Amino acid sequence: MAAAFTAIGGKWKLTLLYWLAHGESHFAGLRRRGAPITPKVLAEQLRELEADGLVERVVTGPVPARVIYRLTPYGATVLPVVEGVRVWGEAHLQRTDGQSVSDTAMSCASSIV
Amino acid sequence: MAAAFTAIGGKWKLTLLYWLAHGESHFAGLRRRGAPITPKVLAEQLRELEADGLVERVVTGPVPARVIYRLTPYGATVLPVVEGVRVWGEAHLQRTDGQSVSDTAMSCASSIV
């Protein structure tokens, strides 16, 4: 991927940043959003976001659910960009009428900035 | 992928929109940008961008190179969003110092809007 687009251009990264913008989450919580992302790909995308300093993996206590993922302060700097994509994407959905925005799991109807 | 992020969230879509913002291109021209994208994936991403009305595939004449890809007027509406990602991405590269922005093939240093 062209260099400048690498950090947030991965297939699920904008979506993950959007989800985490609403609050920290366990891995299972991200899985439960209902999007068709495999655990392997989810783990991979989270690792890459972590490597780029956008997301942090925090060990909070013993099992179960002892690890949470959350945006770093640096990750928060990308939210206006994510919001720009979201707003355009919402208008695109209205235009194409291709997918119901009332699908809770997949909806990106709420603003994050 | 969460609905609103589908149309431009694919792994290579932002990059392809960025490249096409600089002018129409043959398939081979996009290949020659030197990014590590396979012909199969490139064709797939172009097909999806075309299905979403962002890119059009125009037959211009006999072989060789009779097909070009170019942004549609609708595709041009997404360029401010792509530019937002690019600007953030450039700053991110400066911060991480991870990749040379002087690599012509992969550089996204020039503004498109």
Automatic annotation (TrEMBL), chains A, B:
- One Pfam family, short name please? HxlR
**PROSITE patterns on file:** HTH_HXLR
- Could you tell me which Gene3D superfamilies the record lists for this protein? Winged helix-like DNA-binding domain superfamily/Winged helix DNA-binding domain (1.10.10.10)
* Record bears the keyword Transcription: yes
Q: Which residues form the HTH hxlR-type domain?
A: 1-97
Q: Which UniProt keywords apply?
A: DNA-binding, Transcription, Transcription regulation
Question: Which InterPro entries does the record cross-reference, listed alphabetically?
Answer: HTH_HxlR (IPR002577), WH-like_DNA-bd_sf (IPR036388), WH_DNA-bd_sf (IPR036390)
Say yes or no: keyword Transcription regulation present: yes
Q: What is this protein called?
A: Winged helix-turn-helix transcriptional regulator
- Which species? Promicromonospora vindobonensis
